[in-house]
Design brief:
Residues 95-122 form a coiled coil. Keywords: Coiled coil. By secondary structure, this protein is mainly alpha-helical. Helix 9 packs antiparallel against helix 10, helix 27 (628-647) packs antiparallel against helix 28 (651-699) and helix 28 (651-699) crosses helix 32 (764-772). 37% of the residues are buried. The termini are far apart. It contains 36 helices and eleven strands. The longest helix is centred in the first third of the chain and has 50 residues, at 139-188. The strands form three sheets. The chain has a seven-stranded mixed beta sheet with strand order 5-6-11-10-9-8-7, with helices on both faces. The protein has a two-stranded antiparallel ribbon with strand order 1-2. It has a two-stranded antiparallel ribbon with strand order 3-4. Among the domains are: 4-202, Substrate Binding Domain Of Dnak, Chain:A, Domain 2 (Up-down Bundle), CATH 1.20.1270; 212-321 and 330-348 and 355-378 and 390-413; 647-795, no CATH class; 820-922, no CATH class.
Length: 923
């Protein structure tokens, strides 16, 4: 409206924009809104929902209870949508009508404003004209000015009334258009004082199962996209500054994640946006600083808890209650894709700030540990837990076989205390063990346990042949658990006798699922576990520290293996009686028996498994009794023989099987004892060799020491016959003691069988027959004779050495008297002159040493053997002269600190001889 009369005294001049203001509003925006509504109307009317043909199409492709609900919902949604969509076109027309009225009003007001400005200009011009007229009395000028003022006032009043009429017409148009729009709004959202998009959305889709699912999913995806931008900015900022993510950003993100921990659509959308690599970079950037300085512990753990819950939510195939089938199917599909991404990323090594690095398996374990610590007791889907555990096992094996020696337990972060694994939580030995964390995700269903043990490990180029079992077939997860302590030890320089793996208890927890099953799968898994137990036991018993680790880690399952062997008696008898199969032929892991499918091992494999049950303490200086697992096996077999005797069955087969088992145990125990004897003899031989080396060092003769080194390099030895005799007399004979104890055990077994069957000594024949099918072993008498023969041979070697030394000395003396001092005999053959000359010399204290009586004889010998040789430059570590002969001999002459002038002779076959002056002759 005109503001002319707002002041008490109208101003002479007043701006038209102020006196006659333009109507408020933007016609262009109104036209755009109308265009948007028209486009929405066009799109909506082209859909099957608004046209009402959706339910008919659903009938052609979908049937069932959910399809009927979807058809009914489609009809209802169509009715609601048509009511709203039908009002879009009138609303658009009303907006355009008001926009046109507003445009016209604005144009008319602008015209009035121009007239207003013209009135002001006309009054000013009239005042100037009056002032220019001659008016001696001043009356004419005053009358002219007053006339101009009156004309201006009349004009302003006329324009103000015209301005008011324009605005009244615009208000009338606005009321008409608003009435139309209000009617549409009242029809859509009745009784609403202010209509919002959310109210319209609820009015159209509220209470409709599928439609609400679409709306809710869109809201969740929008929130996930917003939070993913926040994550990317935080990670990018830390990458630019080479620092960890700020604590405030981590806390904000953790809070937002925990708010939507149960929103499956949000979880899947956020993880899909970040990807496995983006998630790893976020965790590394947020956690590395905390692991090194201890700062922001609760903040980082909150982030892990939120992300861990999102992973559990996103990978779950069970949609929240009330989710429509369409959204449920989308969630299941996205969960499958996300599971594939997680499994693929398990073996990837991710870098963090500084030198921190971690595998995807370790990071996944940290996420799950965080969720569990925060009270989220949900588990991964069984299939994903199995696949992730198998992939983590492959990553573990590959970690021990690549060139990255700094990666320990899946990470280079500093481990807390003496823990084998690193973690962002307090219990590093458990929460840092990613494989154990993944096994905690497996429920208590026995079928899940059996499937996990049979899960094959994915292939890996780095792991290579380490992913094969004793038969060369791909490794399964159960086999990896049996040998896992070996894998963990392989990543260290030395053994850790105090090593504790939580997965050892996990393995024991899983075994009942396959122990009593007679299916082919369970039988194959038992076979694989028994074979792996046999191999790892043989590996462990070679060292005291690994024996202790094995006893704690894998030995607890030996009792189950003993029961498995007792349950597969038919297959044991068939395998023992069958001839040796072709090593290259494929062998089954299970074979049918009267009670169903049972494990299948050939005779050699059975021997190895029984040996693992019998040997439980490794090597030692004494004979050993079999382990508790083997005793359990024997007790089971004795009970079976007793039951056969009571029922009138064939006891002889039970006795023969016992004989084979006992022979297999004896073979394993004797093999351990034999290794102990060899180790003891090797140690004593090493002491003898070391004694000679010490004497050479104490002599201070570098050339003498170098000659000894040359002898060792060519496979020689510094020991003499006296050393070998002493070793033969004092070295251990555990093999003999073990064989005698085995004989006593077998006698006790025979006595037990006699008592059970009441058959007298007739059980001896089938017992020995069964033992004959096992590995052949020497008897105690044979071992005792062999040891006596070894001592006698050592005595004979010592006597022969002394006799030969005396004979050679006498022969040399006679030859020296009968021949000229400057000539030596020569015979035919390779190196004949050297061999003949050395044969005529006396032997020294060592086998490769010969002695002469004087320096003159030494010079004559040197001239003889170097007569046709050419001088050569000696090696840098040889202090003397050397010659090379055409027949391959190399001759050296030097002065020894201990023995004086000496000759060294190196033969082409690696043999080494030395000649020096006899110390007794010199004195």
């Amino acid at each position: 409206m005109s503001r002319l009369d707002e002041a008490a005294h109208p101003a002479v001049t007043m701006p038209a924009e102020l006196a006659l203001p333009l109507p408020t509003g933007d016609p262009h925006s109104l036209h755009l809104s109308a265009t948007t509504l028209e486009r929405a109307f066009a799109r909506a009317t082209s859909t099957t929902t608004v046209r009402g043909t959706l339910s008919g199409r659903l009938d052609a492709v979908w049937a069932g209870e959910a399809a009927a609900a979807a058809r009914a919902e489609a009809d209802e949604l169509g009715r609601r949508s048509r009511r709203v969509v039908g009002a879009l076109s009138p609303t658009a027309r009303s907006l355009r009508t008001y926009a046109a009225a507003l445009e016209s009003a604005i144009a008319r007001v602008r015209s009035l404003q121009r007239q207003w400005d013209a009135l002001d200009a006309e009054r000013a011009l009239a005042s100037l004209r009056a002032a220019a007229l001659p008016d001696p009395t001043g009356t004419v000028c005053a009358l002219a000015v007053e006339h101009a003022r009156v004309e201006q006032a009349l004009g302003r009043a006329r324009l103000s009334r015209a301005h008011e009429r324009v605005l009244d017409e615009l208000r009338a148009s606005a009321r008409r258009c608003a009435h139309v729009i209000a009617g549409v709004t009242e029809e859509t959202v009745p009784g609403s004082a202010s209509c919002t998009p959310a109210q319209v959305r609820r009015a159209v889709t509220g209470g409709l199962w599928f439609a609400d699912g679409v709306v809710s999913a869109r809201e969740s995806r929008d929130a996930a996209l917003s939070d993913s931008v926040l994550v990317r900015r935080a990670v990018a900022a830390s990458a630019t500054s080479h620092a960890s993510v700020p604590d405030a950003a981590v806390a904000l993100l953790a809070a937002r994640l925990q708010e939507r921990a149960d929103d499956a659509v949000y979880a899947q959308a956020l993880l899909s946006e970040l990807g496995a690599d983006g998630l790893a970079r976020l965790l590394m950037a947020a956690g590395v600083a905390q692991s090194r300085s201890g700062a922001h512990v609760d903040t980082v753990r909150g982030l892990l808890a939120g992300m861990g819950s999102l992973v559990l939510t996103a990978t779950s195939h069970s949609a929240p209650t009330g989710t429509d089938p369409r959204t449920r199917r989308q969630l299941a599909s996205a969960a499958a894709f996300l599971a594939d991404d997680l499994v693929d990323a398990i073996g990837t090594v991710h870098d963090g700030p500084g030198d921190g690095r971690a595998t995807g398996a370790w990071l996944l374990g940290q996420l799950l540990s965080g969720a569990r610590a925060a009270g989220d007791d949900r588990r991964l889907p069984p299939a994903l837990a199995r696949r992730a555990a198998a992939a983590a096992a492959t990553a573990e094996v590959a970690e021990t076989r690549d060139a990255d020696v700094r990666l320990r337990g899946g990470t280079t972060l500093d481990a807390g205390g003496d823990a084998t694994f690193a973690s962002w939580f307090d219990d590093a030995s458990r929460s840092g063990d990613a494989l154990h964390i993944l096994l905690e995700q497996v429920g208590e269903d026995p079928s899940e346990h059996a499937a996990l043990l049979a899960e094959p490990l994915p292939d890996s180029v780095v792991a290579g042949g380490a992913l094969a079992n004793s038969r060369g077939d791909p490794l399964t997860f159960g086999e990896h658990l049996v040998r896992r302590w070996v894998t963990v030890e392989a990543g260290s320089i030395a053994s850790h006798p105090d090593l504790r793996l939580a997965t050892d208890a996990d393995l024991v927890r899983f075994l009942p699922s396959i122990s009593s099953q007679t299916t082919a799968g369970a039988a194959e898994t038992r076979t694989r576990l028994m074979l792996e137990l046999s191999r790892t036991s043989a590996h462990a018993m070679l060292d005291a520290s690994t024996t202790r680790i094995y006893t704690r880690a894998t030995a607890p399952i030996e009792a189950d293996v003993a029961d498995w062997l007792s349950a597969m008696r038919e297959n044991v008898d068939r395998a023992v009686a069958a001839p040796v199969a072709d090593p290259g032929a494929p062998r089954p892991y299970a074979a049918r028996a009267s009670c169903g499918m049972q494990p299948w091992l050939d005779g050699a494999e059975l021997t190895g498994v029984v040996g693992a049950l019998a040997v439980d303490t490794g090597m030692g200086r004494r004979a050993k009794d079999p382990g508790a697992a083997f005793v359990r096996l024997v007790d089971n077999e004795l009970a079976a023989a007793k039951a056969s005797a009571r029922s009138g069955g064939d006891v002889r087969s039970d006795v023969a099987r016992l004989g084979f088992l006992d022979q297999s145990a004896s073979s394993a125990l004797v093999a351990v004892a034999r290794r102990q004897d060899e180790l003891n003899r090797s140690a004593l031989e090493g002491v003898a060799e070391a004694t000679h080396v010490v004497l050479a060092i104490r002599s201070g003769d570098k050339d003498e020491l170098w000659s000894m080194v040359q002898a060792y390099a060519h496979g020689g030895t510094a020991r003499g016959a006296a050393d070998d005799l002493a070793i033969a007399l004092v070295r251990s004979n555990v093999e003999l003691a073990q064989t005698e104890r085995n004989d006593l055990r077998r006698a006790g077994l025979l006595a037990s069988l006699t008592t059970i069957t009441g058959g007298g000594t007739e059980m001896r024949s089938p017992l020995l027959a069964g033992a004959g099918r096992g590995p052949a072993l020497p008897s105690a008498d044979d071992l005792a004779k062999a040891r006596r023969a070894e001592v006698d041979a050592a005595w004979a070697a010592l006597r022969n050495e002394k006799v030969q030394t005396f004979t050679e000395s006498l022969t040399g003396a006679l030859q020296n008297r009968s021949q000229a001092p400057d000539r030596l005999p020569a015979v035919g053959g390779p190196h004949a002159d050297v061999n003949t000359a050395l044969a005529g010399l006396s032997r020294g204290q060592q086998r490769h040493v010969r002695v002469v009586r004087s320096e003159k004889e030494l010079r004559v010998l040197l001239a003889h053997v170097t007569e046709s040789a050419r001088p050569e430059t000696p090696p840098g570590n040889y202090h003397g002269r050397t010659w090379q002969r055409d027949d391959g001999l190399r001759i050296g002459e030097r002065t020894s600190t201990r023995f004086g002038p000496s000759i060294d002779i190196w033969f082409p076959n690696g043999e080494y001889k030395k000649v020096h002056i006899d110390a007794v002759a010199k004195s």
